[in-house]
Amino acid sequence: MYVVIMAGGSGTRFWPLSRRRRPKQLLSLFGDRPMVAETVERFVSFVPREQILIVTSEQLAAAIREAVPDLPPENVLCEPFGKNTAPCIGLAAAAVRARGGTADDVIAVFPADHFIRDVDGFQRLVRLAADVASGGPIVTIGIEPTKPETGYGYILRGETRADGSAEVVEFVEKPGRDTALRYVRDGRYLWNAGMFFFRLDTIEREIDRQLPHLSAQMPTLADALLRGDTVALSSAWELVEAVSIDYGVMEKAAAVRVVAATFGWSDVGAWDALPEVADVDESGNVTMGDVVAIDCHGCVLVGHDRRVLAAVGIEGLVVVDSEDALLVAPRDRAQEVRNIVESLRHRDPDLV
Amino acid sequence: MYVVIMAGGSGTRFWPLSRRRRPKQLLSLFGDRPMVAETVERFVSFVPREQILIVTSEQLAAAIREAVPDLPPENVLCEPFGKNTAPCIGLAAAAVRARGGTADDVIAVFPADHFIRDVDGFQRLVRLAADVASGGPIVTIGIEPTKPETGYGYILRGETRADGSAEVVEFVEKPGRDTALRYVRDGRYLWNAGMFFFRLDTIEREIDRQLPHLSAQMPTLADALLRGDTVALSSAWELVEAVSIDYGVMEKAAAVRVVAATFGWSDVGAWDALPEVADVDESGNVTMGDVVAIDCHGCVLVGHDRRVLAAVGIEGLVVVDSEDALLVAPRDRAQEVRNIVESLRHRDPDLV
Q1: I need a surface site. Which of A144, B8, B77, B91 has the fewest CB within 10 A?
Q2: CA-CA distance, B47 to B258, in Å (whole number)?
Q3: What is the DSSP string of B249-292?
Q4: pTM, whole model, 2 decimals?
Q5: For position B93, what pLDDT does the model report?
Q6: How far apart are CA A280 and CA A286, in angstroms?
């Protein structure tokens, strides 16, 4: 089994901690290690480090390698530039092929920046999904929804089979509030967590069938990776389809199964998600760093290590301090940090 | 006429900007200069700098002298330690006497850290009050109340006389909400702004009559000031009554008059008072420093010069950033900054 961790994202939703050059996967939001290192750590007990690959961008590669020093540096692959997830997975498949992978090797793909509470449960489900995938179908992990979340895509599952997996009836896009509520009540819908398992020959076959441009470049990509030829890689990369794995492959794949998970998962989309996944004090606050909170409730308070963050009597606020910028917003408007980032972008590129 | 500016306060109500060693009078909350410098500046057009004295503490003297470099450094007097306002004024009177002041010199006393909007109007009223005081009575400036403020003491005035002053019927303490409302509706009550005018012989006579211990030390204080003998000053200071000028002198003084003012005044008691006295944007925010505010209303946002303060969608909050500490609180709980200061006092003295 190969593990592929997609770590090319450059979001700033955790601004001011996250920046273009230090996106979420490089932040230590939980525990001492960057999220990408936590993600790698979930596999090292049952997958050899040589078979754990990270796909990222040229801009982030050095920081990623620093974040996971135990991984062979050549296992951190660079996309020449961002082309969405289908080419990213194609590149990973080409890399596995270039390293001598065989048709029946299973590749498991994961985002680098998600939260998982029950790591044992996660590992058990990864083994189950890989087992099912080794029989031929593409397998995804779907999360049993715990609330009518409108920020995730959903997966409609069919009957559960003897092996613990279910047919995927349909991938559905992020729903509105009412639809999300219906999905949760229905019981057949799962959150799409962006985790995929497939045999090397399965993904190659689906790419051949659905993404002809990517398919045509697969041998060139593998060869360029093998030779470390970034110019050839870029030229080939220019020609491939920029499309997500969901749209580009999964929706029309020959056989897709889902295994349902309850291991406690979140994509930790923005600051307001922190209380779902981090330690919360008796007043409902998440505090990180040097924080003095008096009579505060339901807040996310992230102090900078050279400054005390003192809060009195505030409710439902996000306050995040950093070296050169400070954010204050209500939790339910934490998504709007992008407006701040947008208004700062032209002023000082280092601030975003 | 001599001007005495009381600048001994060591409050931290403007924490984290104000600290024990950098209290409000040393902050530049309005304009470019520290408040004590603004206070001095209101007099230099009509009082010689040699006759403007500042009384402060040993701890603050160097910073005060730096804040008002145009003032002769020996005009910044130090109390050996804080003993409330009556001894402070006694010390100032002793200083005037030591400098060759005569019985009919008028001394005008002002706090160092108050806001005055209409400086011309203020100057006119100061001249009027000094004129009245030169005839014998103690004169105070009372501010026509613009709201039922519970944070100020009030002065009940009698009939207004031909010279524009009125008898003081009574000094009344900080009222409750209902009483304050009654005072404002009554029309005869004024805010006590802590500004007093008296002839040198008048204050000496009142001290003789009401504060026997201070009275006994007055010659020693004058002599110690003249010789720069801080040991003698301290010894004498130990023996004087620690009492406010209001309780110790004004309430039982032989003749007290008040002149009513409408020049726009505030004691700027805490962060929540800033919108009354500083420039307010169209959304009701006061912003200082590098602030990006999107959809914020009624906030006080004070950025640090090495950091951008970015706020989205917040209302009625005080956010104050500084080198080593950051405060977030609702405006109506800004007074509770003292709780923060209290909880930090034992941890790191420099933080408070």
Answers
A1: A144
A2: 22
A3: TGGG-S-EEEEEE-S-EE---SGGGHHHHS---TTS-EEESSEE
A4: 0.89
A5: 97
A6: 5
The rounded distance, in Å, linking the Cα atoms of A293 and A205 is: 56
Q: Which position has the token pair 């979140």?
A: A266
Report the residue of chain B nearest A308, measured CA to CA: B325
Query: Which residues of B lie closer than 8 Å to A, measured between beta carbons?
Result: 16, 292, 294, 303, 306-314, 317, 319, 321-330, 333, 336-337, 339-340, 343-344, 348, 351
Rounded to a whole number, what is the distance in Å from the CA of A274 to chain B's nearest CA? 18
Enumerate residues 6+ apart whose C-beta is below 8 A from A66: none
| Chain position carrying tokens 């950098």 | B22
- The interface pTM score, or ipTM, of the predicted complex is 0.88
Residues of A in contact with B325 (CB under 8 A): 307-310
Where does A241-314 show beta strands of DSSP type E? 256-261, 265-266, 286-288, 291-294, 300-302, 308-312
Distance CA A99, CA A197 (A): 18
The owner of tokens 């480090």 is A49
Residue with tokens 């001249």: B127
**Residue type for A71, please?**
L
Helix (H, G, I), strand (E, B) or coil at B114: coil
* Per-residue pLDDT reduced to its tens digit, B148-185: 999 999 999 999 999 999 999 999 999 999 999 999 99
Tell me if B306 and A321 make a contact (CB, 8 A cut-off): no
Residues belonging to chain B: 352
Location of structure tokens 């209001």: B246
Please list the residues that pair with B198 across neighbouring strands.
B107
Burial of A172 (0-12, 13-18, 19+ CB in 10 A): middle
Please report which helix (H) or strand (E) contains residue B186, including its range.
helix B177-186
- Name the residue in chain B with its Cα closest to that of A326: B309
The Cα A171–Cα A193 span in angstroms is: 12
- Strand A76-79 to strand A166-172: parallel, antiparallel, or no bridges (unpaired)? unpaired
Contact yes or no for B56/B10 (Cβ under 8 A): no
Q: Which residues of A touch B336 (CB under 8 A)?
A: 294, 312-313
Cross-chain CB nearest to A325 (options B307, B333, B339):
B307
Residues near B105 by beta carbon (within 8 Å), at least 6 away in sequence: B1, B2, B96, B199, B200
pLDDT tens readout for residues B66-125:
999 999 999 999 999 999 999 999 999 999 999 999 999 999 999 999 999 999 999 999
Contact present, B239 and B200 (Cβ < 8 Å): no
Task: Please state, in angstroms and rounded to a whole number, the distance separating the CA atoms of residues A30 and A158.
Answer: 35
